[in-house]
Amino acid sequence: MSHNSFGHLFRVTTFGESHGPALGCVVDGCPPGLALTEADIQGFLDQRRPGQSRFTTQRQEPDRVKILSGTFGDDPDQSPRTTGTPIALMIENVDQRSKDYTDIKTKYRPGHADLTYEAKYGIRDYRGGGRSSARETAARVAAGAVARKVVPGVTIRGALVQMGPHGIDRSRWDWDEVGRNPFFCPDPEAAAFFETYLDGVRKEGSSVGAVIEVVADGVPPGWGAPLYGKLDADLAAALMSINAVKGVEIGDGFVAATLQGEANADEIRRGADGKPLFLSNHAGGVLGGISTGQSLVARFAVKPTSSILAPRRTIDRAAAETEIITKGRHDPCVGIRAVPVGEAMVACVLADHFLRHRGQVGN
Ligand SMILES: Cc1cc2nc3c(=O)[nH]c(=O)nc-3n(C[C@H](O)[C@H](O)[C@H](O)COP(=O)(O)O)c2cc1C
User: Fold this and answer.
1) What does the alpha-carbon distance between residue 301 and residue 130 come to, in Å, rounded to a whole number?
2) pLDDT digits over 231-240, tens only?
3) What 3-state DSSP class applies to 260?
4) Which has the higher per-residue pLDDT, 90 or 50?
């Protein structure tokens, strides 16, 4: 039974626990000849890395990636290239403070996978959640950086569009703004508000959720593998597999159910180039599980961080009722650091579907 891999032709397997010596991934099926260095991957890892602002955990995880295999280059004037063999990427764990977690050794943290891992496997690495820890998402981000190389014509960008109950004003959407504030927020006014709002939440020792939107531009029509490899289905599965994600929408998502047919179905005209021109994008760039050539739009809801300072009721391994306060260093809104993770998962799905499309119907 192997369920730590995803993708078919661009196949990613991740390994490692939060408090083990290292974690990482093996990317198998990457085409040969793509320029790839550690620096290409590191930039994305730095976006996910904790301690970037006072709004993320102060754990210091440098998340330095090492390429162990799958690239080669003996020309000092040229970047190493992928060789078509498995690309192994490793990130060492250097800021584990196992003692932060010793008092939760016997107690199950509400909102965490402690209880379910123990119910399933009968054994649990209590230090930071082990394999269930979102530290694993660093490996996904590394794989996503490789995936982007496979689909260079596609731009994949993510943004935080809601924090707690507060949504952004979409009329102020500016992609450049995403890199200017600590929230990956495209609305500068909302970002300014989130500073005060999240400071308050953090000082209370509490947490909030968020909604993230990922948009992929440059996806040509035709990607997606009906019926059981539909592009939207694979995107939903990939995003849903991220820690703390409780909902995924494609295009208008749940709002589509509130619309009438004439408002929802995207009308089509003939564009100046003779190609189909859609007058709107309620579908989020997918019809029948196949990309339309429009922007691909996916959103996902991230629950509030479960590890908070407020005491919570729980039980211990002997089923005795007790309380727990999760000490340690945690994000008040894990949705912020989920932005690069969502981008990476979309990148991996798109790289896989590009190769699958090419494999079945050619370029
Ligand atoms: C980037 C990222 C960082 C996270 N960091 C924390 C954290 O510091 N504390 C916490 O309680 N949960 C954190 N989580 C969420 C937990 O990993 C997750 O809620 C837990 O493993 C249970 O899984 P589930 O919520 O998917 O059911 C994080 C999630 C993401 C995406």
Assistant:
1) 23
2) 999 999 999 9
3) coil
4) 90
Is the torsion defined by CA of 282, 284, 287, 293 positive or negative? positive
Asked whether the whole model's pTM tops 0.90, one would answer: yes
Q: Ligand 1: which residue has its CA nearest to atom 27?
A: 244
Contact in structure between 305 and 334 (CB atoms under 8 Å):
yes
Q: Which atom of ligand 1 is nearest to the CA of 113?
A: 22
> Counting atoms of ligand 1 from 1, which one is nearest the CA of 329?
8
Ligand 1 atom closest to Cα of residue 133 = 17
Q: Would you say residue 328 has pLDDT above 80?
A: no
Q: Which of 19, 303, 305 to mutate to test the pocket of ligand 1 (most atoms within 8 A of CB)?
A: 305
Does residue 18 contact residue 93 with C-beta atoms inside 8 Å? yes
Question: Cα-Cα-Cα-Cα dihedral of 345, 350, 351, 353, to 10°?
Answer: 130
Q: Name residues whose C-beta falls within 8 Å of residue 56's C-beta, 6 or more positions apart in sequence.
A: 50, 182, 331, 336, 337
DSSP-derived letter for residue 284 is: -
- Site to probe by mutation for ligand 1, drawn from 125, 334, 337, 341 as the one with most ligand atoms within 8 Å of Cβ, is 334
- Cα gap 356→21, rounded to integer Å: 35
- Angle at which helix 137-150 crosses helix 334-361, to 10 degrees, equals 40
Q: Are 35 and 79 in contact, with CB atoms under 8 Å apart?
A: yes
